[in-house]
Amino acid sequence: MRKIMIFSNMYPSAEHPTYGIFVKNQVRLLESAGVEVDVVAIQDPGKGRKAALKKYMTWCGRAVWQMIKNRKVIALTHAHYAFPTGVLSLVGKKVFGIPYVVTVHGGDIDQMAAKSQRIADMTKRILQQAEAVIVVGDKLHADVTTRFGVPEAKVHVMSMGVDTSVFKEVPKAEARKQLGLPIEEKIMLYVGNVIRAKGLLELVEAFDSLKMSLPDSRLYIVGSQKDDAFAGELRSFIQENDVEDIFFKEPLSQSDLALWMAASDTLVLPSHHEGFGLVALEAMAAGTTVVGTDVGGLSYLLKDGAGFLVEPENPASLATGLWNAIGENAEGIDDTVVRERVTANSFETILANLLSIYRSAGKGRVARDE
């Protein structure tokens, strides 16, 4: 297979090791299969109008230059996020005749395309002119085909995948010993950005309501606090309501995160909207019960007894779900369904599907003499 060029507006760096880590994981997966990959990405999550303009202009310039230099050997480009990243792939197709694939992750459809009609129209153009569109959840499939008019034959439902060599079951006592956590307490874990749309205010309220029944319980919130205003509001909310045993942690490496998941009684993801919910899948692979809101990809991941689905933006429903998962009379989950979901989204399965999409999308440009 000839060279694949990956465009992404999120990609890890030494300073920000978890920023777009799911894209880097997929790049490594492709490289492990012998695929030559070039990455042109933004690695700085910093905000601010002036800084954002500079980094995006630099990124666009690098992308165009790389396509000019490599236009004869690029099989296709793969854009992560329809807008703005897909603009680069669209330019590559129009100017250099390079076919492209685009992965829709959720925010690019649910939020970015809703900002203006101009962005919505550009998103539609990007999606319709792609050789293939990958969506990370069933709801996104419906959105792409109905709202943006992309033919179903071009749309593929495929998550970013879970590395089961990293996210795997470890005996809870052993994991807690390694992390220095108490064996007897109930530990709830949230992993993700500390932003309002992740439902953290509702999570704190739900956790507080459970403390009477589960006095020996802790809540760990692991993630980037890049929204300073909301992070301050959340901490004030915790203090004003005198909620104890809530601990904040900075983003963790994947190996450390896998151990934290294995050590926890439940992973809770109370999002208001969610493209797929990769951390939920990772927790399932680590053998941890997941409680999540009935939105986006979580609706699929946790249905049929694979986890506990609760109403979004509803602290009472969230508290009930957490109680069902880890309370005195905790309900069980269907381990067979969990294993099926994990296997369907394992790196091995994802790689096979992705290479098939590339071959079809790139046609003669992808194939090489072997």
UniProtKB/TrEMBL annotation:
Pfam families: Glyco_transf_4, Glycos_transf_1. One of its GO terms (molecular function) is glycosyltransferase activity. Its EC number is 2.4.-.-. Residues 172-322 form the Glycosyl transferase family domain. It is an enzyme of class 2 (transferase). Gene3D superfamilies: Glycogen Phosphorylase B. Keywords: Glycosyltransferase, Transferase. Residues 22-165 form the Glycosyltransferase subfamily 4-like N-terminal domain. This is Glycosyltransferase. The lineage of its organism: Bacteria, Bacillati, Bacillota, Bacilli, Bacillales.
